[in-house]
């Protein structure tokens, strides 16, 4: 542990983080812990050990939802907003950019509007058809899930975090439980690792197929959209057969596949092949490619500043995939492709997600035959004493998802929990990507190419 926070050294603290990033440290999470401790959690390249930075601090610190992984750029604003009025230190101001001028019209969209299932307001400043600025306003439906976890048992908190986002229910379960196991010093058995890896890849399959369907819809290709959705439905039905729930809620504690597992491999491989056929047809559809290529390109400076994660990051030249960096599951025992591109546009995001579907199918094909069946259930929860804070991190469908938690002395009650979601980080690249030479008609396509979670931002 290293002291990096002084009473009047908040800016130096930020500089320290910047320096760590320059050194290659993967910054996972900035979060307030219990008793006023601010924690920075990361890991050096090549190391399997978590690195913690923290020091007791009397003031309120930023919420983990807005000061999560990579969001140190907003730390100063958050400190200013969340800190008690008696604090003397005032961070430098970063007033919101206001775009004014003759012919500029601000087009408000949301927070509730068609084709969007979550509440988010887009304020689009346009000059004619060109988007010159975008402001996102979120927080309309905060649920305070991590706060509700305080004082709950591990199993009760698990039921809360699995409802963080429907498209990443299992990823939240696994990351949360990994943090519990890390705090207890528990190492799960090989069968549990395989089971969880299969479930996580099934969730990624369903999520990516849904993403590609919406992208096809945004370009006016309903046939491709329905084809993708048909395949997504097949995966959801297999989720129900294998894990007991279409969206994998409660799947982690089952810890074994249902008896239908022996019949699943061939069907899931067929889904992968059909998805590839749809994608290949889109690769030869000029009206589709013309709308994607060059649209929503994330500026290079934004990529380096925000460092987006998941498919968005990998489509922008950042080859960060938790499955290849973190020691969890059985990903270190199998080889799998990590698609990437350096184009940073909507086409690159489509390309990466479509190739990740193939990679996930290959992982499932290899793991499904050896995954534990219903008769081989192992114990997930074990008695143990808390050994301090724990951290869990997985590669969710939308990228790096991290949990940090503290248990009480019994090791059974949640004392404090924080989460950093990939969407909470990646939403910050959307405005500069949108206002980068695009026109208003590109908006739905660019938005669909990101398809980030508002629930993961608001939490």
Features:
three-stranded antiparallel β-sheet; globular; disordered N terminus; alpha+beta; 459 residues
Task: Explain what you see.
This protein has 459 residues and is α+β, with helices and mostly antiparallel strands. It is 42% helix and 14% strand. It has helices spanning 10-22, 75-82, 145-149, 154-161, 169-184, 190-218, 222-243, 251-254, 261-283, 286-292, 300-306, 310-314, 322-325, 346-367, 422-426, 430-434, 443-450, 455-458, and strands spanning 26-32, 37-43, 51-56, 104-109, 121-127, 130-137, 390-396, 399-407, 414-420. Strand 5 (121-127) and strand 6 form a beta hairpin. The radius of gyration is 22 Å and the shape is globular. Mean pLDDT is 80; it is low at 1-10 and 53-95.
Secondary structure topology:
Elements: H1 10-22, E1 26-32, E2 37-43, E3 51-56, H2 75-82, E4 104-109, E5 121-127, E6 130-137, H3 145-149, H4 154-161, H5 169-184, H6 190-218, H7 222-243, H8 251-254, H9 261-283, H10 286-292, H11 300-306, H12 310-314, H13 322-325, H14 346-367, E7 390-396, E8 399-407, E9 414-420, H15 422-426, H16 430-434, H17 443-450, H18 455-458
Antiparallel strand pairs: 1-2, 2-3, 4-5, 5-6, 7-8, 8-9
Helix pairs in contact: 4-5, 5-6, 6-7, 6-14, 6-17, 7-9, 9-14, 14-17
- The count of DSSP E runs of length 2 or more, i.e. the number of strands, is 9
Tell me the span between the first and last alpha carbons: 29 Å
Shape: globular
Low-confidence stretches: 1-10, 53-95
Radius of gyration based on Cα positions: 22 Å
How does the helix and strand content classify structurally? alpha+beta
């Amino acid at each position: 542990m290293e002291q990096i926070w002084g009473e009047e050294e908040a800016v130096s603290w930020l500089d320290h983080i910047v320096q760590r990033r320059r050194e290659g440290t993967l910054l996972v999470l900035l979060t307030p812990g219990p008793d006023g401790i601010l924690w920075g959690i990361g890991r050096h390249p090549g190391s399997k050990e978590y690195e913690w930075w923290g020091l007791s601090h009397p003031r309120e610190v930023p919420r983990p939802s807005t000061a999560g992984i990579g969001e140190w750029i907003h730390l100063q604003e958050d400190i200013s907003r969340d800190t008690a009025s008696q604090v003397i230190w005032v961070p430098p101001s970063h007033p919101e950019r206001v775009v004014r001028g003759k012919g500029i019209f601000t087009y408000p969209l949301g927070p509730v509007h068609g084709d969007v299932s979550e509440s988010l307001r887009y304020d689009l400043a346009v000059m004619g058809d060109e988007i010159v600025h975008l402001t996102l306003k979120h927080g309309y439906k905060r649920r305070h899930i991590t706060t509700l976890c305080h004082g709950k048992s591990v199993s009760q908190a698990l039921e809360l975090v699995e409802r963080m986002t429907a498209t990443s229910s299992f990823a939240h379960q696994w990351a949360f439980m990994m943090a519990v196991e890390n705090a207890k010093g528990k190492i799960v058995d090989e069968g549990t690792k395989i089971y969880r890896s299969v479930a996580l890849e099934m969730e990624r399959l369903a999520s990516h197929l849904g993403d590609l369907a919406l992208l096809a819809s945004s370009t006016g290709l309903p046939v491709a959209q329905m084809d993708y959705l048909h395949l997504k439905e097949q995966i959801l039905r297999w989720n129900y057969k294998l894990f007991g729930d279409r969206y994998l809620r409660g799947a982690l504690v089952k810890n074994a596949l249902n008896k239908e597992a022996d019949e699943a491999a061939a069907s899931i491989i067929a889904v992968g092949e059909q998805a590839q056929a749809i994608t290949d047809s889109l690769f030869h559809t000029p009206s589709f490619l013309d709308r994607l290529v060059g649209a929503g390109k994330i500026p290079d400076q934004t990529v380096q500043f925000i460092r987006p994660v998941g498919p968005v990051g990998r489509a922008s030249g950042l080859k960060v995939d938790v499955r290849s960096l973190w020691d969890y599951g059985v990903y270190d025992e199998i080889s799998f492709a990590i698609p990437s591109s350096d184009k940073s546009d909507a086409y690159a995001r489509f390309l990466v997600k479509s190739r990740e579907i193939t990679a996930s199918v290959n992982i499932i094909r290899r793991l499904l035959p050896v995954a534990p069946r219903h008769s081989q259930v192992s114990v997930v929860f074990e008695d143990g004493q808390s050994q301090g804070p724990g951290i869990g991190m997985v590669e969710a469908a939308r990228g790096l998802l991290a949990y940090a938690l503290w248990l009480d002395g019994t090791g059974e009650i949640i004392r404090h929990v924080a989460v950093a979601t990939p969407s909470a980080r990646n939403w910050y690249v959307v405005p500069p990507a949108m206002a980068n030479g695009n026109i208003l008609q590109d908006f739905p396509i660019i938005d669909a190419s990101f398809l980030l979670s508002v629930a993961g931002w608001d939490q």
